[in-house]
Amino acid sequence: MNAIIFVRVSRRDQDYQRQIQDLRAIAISMDVEVVKEIAEKISGATKNQHREAIQELLKLVHQGQVDKVLVQEVSRLGRSTVEVLQVVEELTDLGVSIYVQNFGIETLKKGSYPISYRTLFGDIKLTSPRFYCCACPSNLSIRDASKTFSPLNELLCEHTSPERLYLESRWGVLLSYHGATHLLKDILPLSKTYNAASLRNHLVRVAERKEEMLGEEQFMFAGGCQMDWN
Question: What is the pTM of this model?
Answer without folding.
Answer: 0.47
